[in-house]
Specification:
The complex is a heterodimer. Chain A is α/β, with parallel strands linked by helices. Chain A contains ten helices and ten strands. In chain A, a hairpin with a 2-residue loop joins β9 and β10. In chain A, α3 packs across α5 and α3 packs parallel to α6. A two-stranded antiparallel ribbon of chain B has the order 1-2. In chain B, β1 and β2 form a beta hairpin. The chains are: A alpha/beta, B mainly alpha.
């Protein structure tokens, strides 16, 4: 069954049409790749799905229910989490605290119970700590738990951002170019991690330029170009699609994009 | 544990301090340090943790003082009851004001809070029938506890510093909790915080209200200590002073706010004595210039404030 249905999403920025009538559906438990040349509208679409910008028209259904107009924080509690292209770790916190923030929505306790340090809030806090450490350990990141997030190497920061997203216990995790700027070893780790998360039952939408990562981990691909969907299918089928090849490499008359 | 024993030592030191102070004048300064520390801690929660600026916090100090003062002096309510009304009422007002104001960011928020502070000040000045206008509100009753009246500096000193430590403990518990992490995440990246399911606008308004509550508590204690209030101390100048206290102490550190309050209150007292001797005209204005310079110097050379400086020295010796 499809977890997410994108139906005719169109987005205008002033006179520019960033996305026009994009439709596809994302199956549960799959890694869904969203690819396309620069400026194709991939990140815009991700921002619309995660509620950060409104679409001009169209609808998005999560398990059959529309999520259009929902705030990002509401979507997080409905099971959509994400990472960011340019890295938005909380640099003023440790790696562990970052993941603990990810646990936020699954726990309660506001100003008053925190100020009074009730036994209940103490238990909650211990549980948040335990679960966060567990998530870091499962990703092999526990040795960096107490390091300030902004002091860590880029590749680790990316993984910690994913760990933070995982801590929200999402059904759908949106990854925006997680491999950008990583070295080959780090890319391999990332690919393994994405596959592991899929095996845990998390559905993933992956926006990515690195074809090695895309081809090795994605179950299904949608290709965007200039805001249009130009192809979809399995990685093998998309790879040989003439329109996709043209979009990426240009046609015989020279470079296209 | 180490932190707690450190604070226990400070508390014992403060408990015996009055014995060492040569006169009531110094006790009075200690009380003002405590009151300013309360307000500065509130501002620190807002600025240092949630990353939202307020240049109008004197207004909440004043609202706490005036609400409690008016309720007890003009309407005959008991001082504690007046304060118990004044503090949540001020926090509630801040909540309501915060809903529109905290949609703004950066300079816009700074200017909006500055404007808010000036408006409240003008209300104190001009709503004469209620506030007494520029000539102030007098005969505010002392706080009492059964037969015990807080009518001497020594008694108020213990009361105020007990409040400071309670507020510090509560504040520390908050910043080390789920809520505290949410606030810090807003400071660092609001969009990432939202993606983690944190209702950022809600938290900003709540911490604004809490920080106004801290200021109002200080204001209420101030009113019932001096038994007389006038609008002058609650102008924008005091808002700036509170800001300087937070920055000088260490912006991301609640105990830093206490340290900052101590340093700035003492400096202010020294300057009040010194400036008229140096400048025959407008000595009060030079004081704010001095604090402005201090703010710039700290921002450039010690952005983490005195707490960071102390930490640095401690590590070098070790």
């Amino acid at each position: 069954m499809s977890l997410l249905q994108v139906e005719g999403i169109t987005k205008h920025f002033g006179g520019l049409t960033a996305l026009s009538g994009i439709s596809f559906s994302v199956d549960e438990g799959k890694v869904f790749g969203l690819i396309g040349p620069n400026g194709a509208g991939k990140t815009t679409l991700l921002n619309i799905i995660s509620g950060f910008i409104p679409a001009t028209s169209g609808d998005i259904l999560l398990k059959g229910k529309s999520i259009m107009g929902c705030h990002p924080h509401v979507l997080a509690s409905r099971g959509i989490s994400r990472t960011f292209q340019n890295g938005h770790l909380f640099g003023n916190m440790t790696a562990l605290e970052n993941v603990m923030v990810g646990c936020h929505i699954r726990f309660r306790g506001e100003f008053l119970s925190a100020a009074l340090q009730t036994r209940w809030s103490h238990r909650q806090e211990r549980e948040i700590y335990r679960q966060s450490l567990e998530i870091l350990s499962s990703m092999g990141l526990h040795s960096w738990a107490q390091e300030p997030a902004d002091s860590l190497p880029f590749g680790l920061q990316r993984l910690i951002e994913i760990a933070r997203g995982v801590a929200t216990k999402p059904e759908l995790l949106l990854l925006d170019e997680p491999a950008a700027g990583l070295n080959p070893g780090e890319k391999e780790l990332l690919t393994e991690e994405i596959a592991r998360l899929r095996n845990l039952g998390i559905t993933i939408i992956l926006v990515e330029h690195d074809m090695g990562v895309v081809m090795s981990v994605c179950d299904y691909l949608v290709v965007l170009n200039y805001g249009q969907k130009i192809a979809e299918g399995t990685p093998e089928a998309v790879q040989i699609d003439p329109e996709v090849v043209t979009a990426y490499l240009g046609d015989e008359n020279g470079f296209h994009a | 544990m180490k932190i707690y024993s450190g604070w226990a030592a400070v508390a014992v030191g403060l408990a015996f301090l009055p014995v060492l102070l040569p006169s009531n004048y110094y006790l009075g300064i200690m009380i003002f340090i405590g009151l300013n520390a309360l307000a500065a801690m509130g501002l620190c929660l807002l600025m240092g943790y949630a990353g939202q600026i307020s240049l109008g916090h004197a207004a909440f100090f004043g609202l706490g003082a005036y609400t409690s003062g008016i309720l007890s002096a003009s309407y005959g309510l008991s001082p504690w009851l007046s304060m118990a009304i004044a503090v949540p009422a001020t926090a509630g007002l801040a909540f309501a004001l915060g809903v529109p104001i905290l949609r703004l960011q950066g300079y816009y928020l700074a200017v909006a809070t500055l404007g808010m502070g000036i408006i409240v000040y003008l209300v104190f000045m001009n709503w004469t029938s209620l506030t007494g206008g520029p000539s102030g509100l007098s005969s505010i009753p002392y706080l009492t506890l059964g037969p015990f009246t807080f009518n001497r500096d020594l008694k108020v000193y213990y009361l105020v510093w007990a409040m400071v430590f309670l507020a510090l403990a509560g504040g520390r518990n908050i910043v080390n909790s789920r809520v505290g992490r949410a606030l810090r995440s807003i400071h660092s990246s609001e969009i990432a915080a939202q993606a983690m399911g944190i209702n950022t606008s809600r938290y900003k308004v709540k911490v604004f209200a809490l920080s106004a509550g801290y200021a109002a508590l200080a204001g209420g204690l101030y009113a019932h200590y001096l038994t007389f209030i006038s609008p002058a101390p609650f102008g924008y100048q005091f808002s700036i002073e509170l800001l300087v206290m937070v920055v000088v102490g260490g912006i991301g550190n609640l105990s830093g706010a206490i340290l900052g309050a101590a340093v700035i209150t003492l400096l202010s007292e020294i300057l009040r004595d010194l400036m008229p001797r140096l400048f025959s005209y407008g000595a009060g204005e030079y004081e704010i210039v001095f604090f402005g310079i201090l703010l710039i110097v700290f921002m450039i050379f010690l952005p983490g404030g005195l707490v960071q400086g102390l930490e640095f020295m401690r590590r070098r010796r070790a």
